[in-house]
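Exercise 7.
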Amino acid sequence: MTRGSHLGELEELVLLAAMRLGRDAYGAAIRRELRRRAGRAPSVSTIYVTLMRLEEKGFVRSRLGDSTSPRGGRPKRLFEPTPEGVEELQAARQVRERMWEGLEALEAGGAGGDGGG
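Solution. The predicted structure, written as tokens, is:
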């Protein structure tokens, strides 16, 4: 995995939402995407804390957008995933797929697992 860091669940969801939104992802838009696709609506401040953590890990980069009058002339901070962030998402997906592999009985409502512990 990249830089020895793993993605937490919220980090993974925020990063996926940012990927879907492209170069112009920002807090409120990410929140809408999470609500629509994941049924989650963390506060915008929680999303920004998560984005800052992802930026520290090198998984997103940010830039200031244009100033807008609805924001009192303040620019939005826009985020986009880095190649390392995309790589980390792919690795997380592979881990999840490996963990689900062979659990068809569990998916169908039966008992699963190999009994090992």
